[in-house]
Amino acid sequence: xxxxxxxxxxxxxxxxxxxxxxxxxxxxxxxxxxxxxxxxxxxxxxxxxxxxxxxxxxxxxxxxxxxxxxxxxxxxxxxxxxxxxxxxxxxxxxxxxxxxxxxxxxxxxxxxxxxxxxxxxxxxxxxxxxxxxxxxxxxxxxxxxxxxxxxxxxxxxxxxxxxxxxxxxxxxxxxxxxxxxxxxxxxxxxxxxxxxxxxxxxxxxxxxxxxxxxxxxxxxxxxxxxxxxxxxxxxxxxxxxxxxxxxxxxxxxxxxxxxxxxxxxxxxxxxxxxxxxxxxxxxxxxxxxxxxxxxxxxx
Length: 299
Ligand SMILES: C[S@@+](CC[C@H](N)C(=O)[O-])C[C@H]1O[C@@H](n2cnc3c(N)ncnc32)[C@H](O)[C@@H]1O
Hints:
Shape: elongated
CATH architecture of the largest domain: 3-Layer(aba) Sandwich
Bound molecules: S-adenosylmethionine
Strand order of the largest sheet: 3-2-1-4-5-7-6
CATH topology of the largest domain: Rossmann fold
Strand content: 5-15%
Number of domains: 2
Largest sheet: 7 strands, mixed
Radius of gyration: 20 Å
Low-confidence stretches: none
Distance between the termini: 44 Å
Structural class: alpha/beta
Order of helices and strands: HEHEHEHEHHHHHHHEHEHE
Mean pLDDT: 94
Helix content: 40-55%
């Protein structure tokens, strides 16, 4: 594992936007490999405190290693970021100076075939980010109706062929031939003939993204939870979101719009995109959008 492989997306832009004060307290709600967290701790300095959250224990272990020699104090928290206020209460932390959400999955999730996230790797249909959660992709697909599958493909994947793919998935379910990531890829290929496939991306990209979002309930009340977390910012404190698809970005945008009516100022009128240099050296950053909001001083 090289640092290059896990380079944090838009690291400089993120740190510039957060403007963390020396000796302050901040939350990295999605610590992952700890790339952003390390930069945050360096900005906070020896007297700083970082709450580092992730619901994937493997990621939390990676972050612990990455941050072993970082300055300041780190509280590692294995939890869904939707519990951010409760976790701060448990740590007896009232206000924080900065909060970062680097949303979505980690590259490592795609690289481990056993986790079932990738259409390029044969594996079980798992796709859970939090492996203490009960429902795998196989279980979700097992209980979801045709309508639910089609809706997920459309809403979470933007899949134009949602109806045909959902139909084929249901047929395979009935025949007992929907067990692995390869089976799911086959279902997509059977449903969408070559001349109707998108050229730019693998035909199963949208299906895998949609099912992953459904299994992990990634967009469930995300805007509400972002707003709730922002209430824990100290006056002048900032929150940054990095999103990678339209559903995530919409949630951040809606949350920030609501917050701007009650004591917060949107810093990024338009989301910031990564530089062409960054996209060239790290293609997985290409869809990233950075948004930032600040709590007004008088609140
Ligand atoms: C894009 S990665 C973060 C990468 C990180 N910024 C770094 O520098 O390495 C997103 C992380 O968020 C975690 N995650 C996603 N949804 C979460 C949730 N609801 N609660 C807690 N962690 C979550 C994932 O497990 C993953 O490790």
